[in-house]
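User: Hey, my collaborator sent me this sequence without any context and asked if I could get a structure. I don't really work with proteins. Can you help?
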Amino acid sequence: MRTALLIYTRMQSFLKSVIYTMGHITIALICAVTITGSQVYYATVDAIVEPLINGLWFFILDTCWPNGSTLKKTLVYTTGHVIIATYSLVIITGSSFRLAVVDAIVEPGINAVWYYLLDYIWKKKHSTRLIHDP
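Assistant: No problem. I've predicted the 3D structure and written it out in structure-token form, which is a compact way to encode the shape of the chain:
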């Protein structure tokens, strides 16, 4: 039973990470074009590559700290996200470091809200299910 619960928990974490990453890609694309003025092509590449890296960061954090406080997890995640987003934009789009920093602060802020909402709703939905399921 314990192994089944562990597998279930890991699969739920993976699914939640995929859902988060899809939202993240959308947010990253809109922010990169709007803030840095990057061409849509490069912004699209960045909007796919950077969220995939941050999706991996999300998965690592969620896997290593599954029962952590949502607020604390959000703050730790967002710090890593700002660092990843800045360097991703500079390298992929050729954006100035200054605009990349602005984007890296604004975009993770939006994603922090997305992360918090997803984690909050997920915990509510799945904690109820675990209590009621035999």
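In plain terms: The first helix runs from residue 2 to 36. You can pass these tokens on to your collaborator as they are.
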